[in-house]
Backbone:
């Protein structure tokens, strides 16, 4: 039991004790390949001097405060929650980059160890990596794996651990700053828990891990590489002679699934032996026991290097079957920079990038014989049996509230521990793995979740660990570990829980139905239940239909259209309403406008509108009977240069003007717009 937690801060390069806090509400949370942090809730009368970067030491591990605390300030007290995180959280701060080019998009054909080596180099700050964010990170126990080509773009190093776990089918754990991978995190404990006094459990709850089901029969298929056309399935994939595998150990119900093991296919792996030729582009491999010329698919045969300077490169080549010699054909080095003089990249093999002997390689684009197909089928069968042994188990988890007094002298429970859970009333007795724990550091009270499945979506295991030979993670800041929420998945969406395409369409459709209740449609007939005000006017291209009470005069009708008059609005009644359609403008007039004197409608031909103090009226044309003064009498004309109407004396008109035969001088053409 821990009564207080000491908070340290690095001052002038040395740790200094800043304060000690009570551990009554301090909880250590651990999840397999997930959370590892201490959450501390405190109620104090003063604001504590605890800052970002301060840390707690627990069992030799430095838990650091990496983000601002959450708090609620009241009149005389301060309620604050601090979260101190384990060293692996620092990996979130560093984006994986290519060691040679510095690019955040990294493609590598390699084993799991190659990726962890690159990750550790990225994180540790050193002379050859001044952009590192920490120090002391090391490679621990890493199993030997197959070579896989993976591409990551903008992924942080913490997320990379999870992606590599899926790609290589191993689980990782971090001991302080040492990264380890194992086939499955397990530590069998001779511990049995049953509910009841002295039996270890206060409470036990069973729930489903997710909405997925078990699988009892699978149809396993492999990859398509090096499969002779017609010998695989319809997609050209490797298949088993027996077609399917079954496991009914937990239920008799038949639940079928097709599972793709993309990395399993006929393959040959050789080693570079004797070297010759320019830039060592010729080499011998005596273990090649087939004639590549006879087995190549058209021009698709390629040699792929798995180690060495040319690792990840795929070459066309020439084959000499008698000498078992391969001659590489030069190709552009896509990772090299462009030469400013030639505007081309250099070719490989080159003096700087070439074979040295002992490199591993394989082939693609060739038909391998029966021995290789048989070996691939055996590997496919083994992987399928392992997969089914796991997924034929019921997808349930148990949440255990452990009697911490029962654990005295037995050591702590940790994620990965295998314990026996007994529920006699339900005929349940299982050896099952702890996947997460939460422990109160003051009392020792512990709650743990036990399950043979990690808390992840059903399809994540298949798609993440089995179907994918090439994982591409796009975007910065951790677009990895993505869970797809399908149509009836009730989990909360987030940056990591994203909608499937069908779920997205469904959400949009549902949202559109809600929006129809709020917004008017632009493309369909619609009805607004409230008053509509057009603040900046409107334009009606093809006429406007307005339903109004019938009016006796045009002026009254226009008054209804232009003035807010609630008394003039009536319920829709076919007998009482009239329509103003696009072609029915005969009842409208200039004099019908509310600010125009109605007498303008009977004004003489040629009259002009005149703006008065309160309304518009008109001036009728009159024949002039006085003396013509050509210099003082003005006429309006349009100046095309300034695009304005101007007045000029009639004396400015030269040569005389012949009036039109009709109307003049009684008419003046104008248009209302």
Residues:
């Amino acid at each position: 039991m821990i009564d207080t937690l000491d908070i340290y801060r690095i001052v002038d390069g040395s740790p200094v004790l800043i304060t000690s806090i009570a551990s009554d509400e301090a909880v250590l949370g651990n999840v397999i390949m997930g959370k590892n942090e201490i959450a501390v809730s405190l109620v104090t009368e003063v604001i504590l001097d605890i800052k970002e970067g301060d840390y707690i030491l627990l069992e030799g591990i430095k838990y650091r405060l990496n983000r601002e605390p959450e708090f609620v300030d009241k009149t005389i007290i301060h309620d604050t929650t601090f979260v101190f995180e384990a060293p692996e959280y620092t990996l979130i701060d560093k984006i994986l980059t290519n060691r040679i080019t510095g690019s955040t998009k990294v493609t590598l054909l390699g084993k799991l160890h190659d990726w962890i080596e690159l990750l550790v180099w990225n994180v540790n700050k050193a002379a050859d990596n001044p952009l590192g964010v920490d120090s002391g990170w090391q490679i621990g126990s890493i199993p030997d794996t197959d070579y896989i080509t993976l591409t990551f773009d903008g992924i942080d190093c913490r997320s990379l651990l999870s992606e590599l776990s899926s790609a290589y089918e191993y689980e990782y754990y971090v001991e302080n700053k040492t990264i380890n991978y194992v086939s499955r995190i397990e530590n069998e404990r001779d511990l049995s828990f049953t509910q009841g006094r002295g039996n270890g459990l206060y409470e036990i709850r069973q729930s489903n891990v997710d909405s997925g089901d078990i699988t009892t029969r699978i149809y396993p298929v492999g990859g398509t590489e090096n499969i002779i056309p017609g010998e695989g399935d319809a997609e050209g994939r490797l298949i088993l002679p027996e077609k399917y595998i079954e496991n009914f150990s937990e239920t008799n119900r038949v639940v079928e699934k097709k599972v793709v093991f993309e990395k399993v296919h006929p393959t040959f792996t050789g080693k570079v032996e004797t070297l010759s030729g320019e830039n060592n582009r010729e080499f011998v491999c005596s273990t090649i026991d087939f004639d590549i010329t006879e087995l190549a698919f058209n021009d698709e045969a390629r040699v792929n290097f798995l180690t060495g300077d040319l690792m990840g490169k795929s070459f066309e080549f020439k084959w000499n079957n008698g000498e078992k010699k391969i001659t590489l054909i030069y190709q552009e080095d896509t990772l090299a920079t462009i030469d400013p003089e030639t505007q081309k990249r250099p070719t490989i093999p080159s003096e700087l990038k070439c074979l040295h002997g002992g490199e591993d390689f394989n082939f693609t684009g060739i038909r391998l014989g029966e021995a290789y197909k048989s070996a691939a089928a055996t590997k496919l069968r083994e992987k399928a049996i392992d997969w089914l042994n796991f997924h034929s188990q019921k997808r349930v988890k148990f949440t255990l509230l452990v009697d911490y007094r029962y654990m005295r002298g037995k050591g702590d429970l940790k994620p990965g521990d295998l314990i026996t859970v007994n529920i006699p009333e339900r005929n349940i007795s299982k050896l099952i793995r702890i996947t997460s724990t939460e422990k109160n550091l003051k009392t020792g009270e512990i709650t743990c979740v036990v399950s043979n499945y990690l808390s992840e979506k059903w399809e994540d295991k298949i798609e993440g660990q089995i179907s994918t030979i090439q994982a591409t993670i796009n975007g910065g800041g951790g677009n990895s570990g993505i869970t797809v929420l399908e149509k009836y998945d009730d989990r909360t969406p987030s940056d990591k829980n994203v909608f499937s395409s069908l779920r997205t369409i469904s959400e949009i459709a549902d949202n559109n139905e809600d929006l129809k209740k709020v917004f008017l449609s632009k493309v369909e007939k619609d009805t607004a239940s409230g008053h509509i005000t057009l603040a900046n006017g409107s334009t009606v291209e093809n006429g406007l239909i307005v339903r109004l009470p019938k009016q006796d005069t045009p002026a009254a009708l226009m008054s209804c259209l232009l003035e807010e008059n609630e008394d003039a609005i009536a319920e829709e009644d076919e007998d009482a309403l009239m329509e103003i359609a696009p072609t029915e403008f005969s009842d409208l007039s200039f004099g019908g406008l509310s600010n125009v004197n109605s007498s303008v409608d009977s004004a003489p031909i040629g009259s002009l509108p005149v703006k008065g103090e309160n309304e518009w009226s008109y001036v009728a044309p009159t024949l002039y009977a006085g003396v013509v003064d050509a210099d003082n009498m003005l006429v309006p004309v349009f100046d095309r240069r300034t695009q304005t109407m101007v007045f000029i004396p009639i004396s400015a008109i030269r040569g005389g003007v012949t009036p039109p035969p009709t109307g003049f001088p009684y008419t003046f053409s104008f248009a209302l717009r």
Summary: Residues 455-481, 563-586, 662-673 have pLDDT under 50 and may be disordered. The CA atoms of residues 18 and 50 lie 8 Å apart. The two ends are 88 Å apart (CA to CA).
